[in-house]
Structure formats: structure tokens, C-alpha cells
Amino acid sequence: MEEIEKDTVFYDESSGGVTFSGGEPFMQPIFLRTLLRLCKERRIQTAVETCGFIDTGTLLNTSPYVDLYLYDLKVIDDKKHQRFTGVSNRVILENLRQLSRSHDHITIRFPVIPGVNDDDRSVSQVGDFVCSLQRVKEVDVLPYHQHGIDKYRRLGMRYRMTETHPLSNEEVARITERLSSFGLRVKVGG
Fold first, then answer.
1. Residue 171: which region, alpha, beta or left (left: phi > 0; alpha: psi -120 to 50)?
2. Residue environment code for 77-86, b if the CB has 16+ CB neighbours within 10 A, otherwise e
3. Domain segments of the chain: what residues?
4. Which of 13-22, 30-39, 84-93 has the lowest mean pLDDT?
5. Among residues 185, 175, 42, which one has the least CA distance to residue 117?
6. For the CA atoms of the chain, what is the radius of gyration?
7. E strands in 113-154
8. What is the pLDDT confidence band of residue 93, given thresholds at 50, 70 and 90?
9. Which of 44, 47, 89, 147 would bridge 39 by S-S if both were Cys, CB 3.0 to 4.6 A apart?
């Protein structure tokens, strides 16, 4: 909290606050919940970026201390999700359903990866699913970029998507228009 409170003047001037991200911040649930609670006590706004692949009870018990969820939604089709992430998305989707019943400020973050989820079917499935949720009407489209390549090299790791190239402006516009057609507020970036 001492580190967080050093920036209080910036939070006050910008009407901003603290964003907990990672990796996955819920991998340290007690630490996260404690910091969120302390921020709430000090009237510091909070946001949590999550992929939603966490225990539902942990997510819901932390919810009273979170002002905004930035919830990643990659793929709706479970088999496709398993193929690209290694895990089922059933927990992720159910957690989002549960959270949307009780929390008013959730922004869906849709990281668009060429050849993975940029096709019309995948985009439409995201639009359909988000429309089925209570209290969720915002989607941030996050186009794939190659900014992480150098980081992988510095860490001595192999970057597996060297042949994947960012979407064109026209392709991003097509995706945002499709999601907007569901009545969602859509912006690029986030």
C-alpha cells in the first residue's frame, strides 16, 4: 500500500486508480483481495485485468472491492479455446456470466489474433455471448501486435508466432463494425 499511495496525487488529478494485472492477478488471491480492500478503504479506484480462469468463489468474493473488471475473452468455441490455450473456457465463460449478474463495470477485452479468432464466426460468437450477459455492453478490440518478440529474445524464449502479422486497418474496422452490429460499444485498444 505504501507504493500504491505514492501515486495518490495522480489518481486524484486523473480520476484514475490502480490496475492489477499480470500474468493473472488472481493467482495470488489473498494478496490481491487484501490490496483491493485497502484501496477501497482509502477511496482509491481499482481495476483488475483477468482471463477469468479462476475459482468462481474467489472472483465473486473479491468483486466488492473492484471498481472495474477488464475481462479477456479470446474464443467462445471450447474446442478451439483448448487448442490454442491448452485449457477449456467453460470456467471462464461461467465466471463472466456470474460476474455480470452482480457487477456493473465490466469491459470485455477481445485480443484478436490473425488465424485464431479474427474470422467472422469467432467474432460473431463473441458478439452473441457478450450480448447475452447482464450489465456488459463494452468491448475493447485489442489487435495483435509483435511488440513481445524482443522480450522473448531477451528472455531466451522462442516466439512461436513469428509468421503472424498484425491485422490491417480494414480488418480491424471489419471486426469492430461486426461487434458494433450487436449493439455493443466497441473501441480499438484499451
1. alpha
2. eeebbeeeee
3. 1-51+58-66, 73-190
4. 13-22
5. 175
6. 17
7. 138-143
8. very high
9. 44
pLDDT by residue (tens digit) across 103-144?
999 999 999 999 999 999 999 999 999 999 988 999 999 999
CA 143 to CA 141: how far, in whole Å? 6
162, pLDDT greater than 80: no
Q: What are residue 111's DSSP bridge partners?
A: 142
Are the beta carbons of 99 and 130 closer than 8 angstroms?
no
**For helices 169-180 and 120-131, angle between their N-to-C axes, nearest 10 degrees:** 30
- Give the cell for residue 50: 483477468
Return d(Cα 190, Cα 137) in angstroms, integer. 15
**What is the assigned CATH class of domain 73-190?**
alpha beta
Residue 149's pLDDT band, with cuts at 50, 70 and 90, is confident
Using alpha carbons only, what angle is made at residue 176 by residues 96 and 89, rounded to the nearest 5 degrees?
30
Lowest mean pLDDT among 19-28, 85-94, 143-152, 172-181: 143-152
Write down the pTM of the prediction: 0.91
- Maximum CA pair distance of the chain? 48
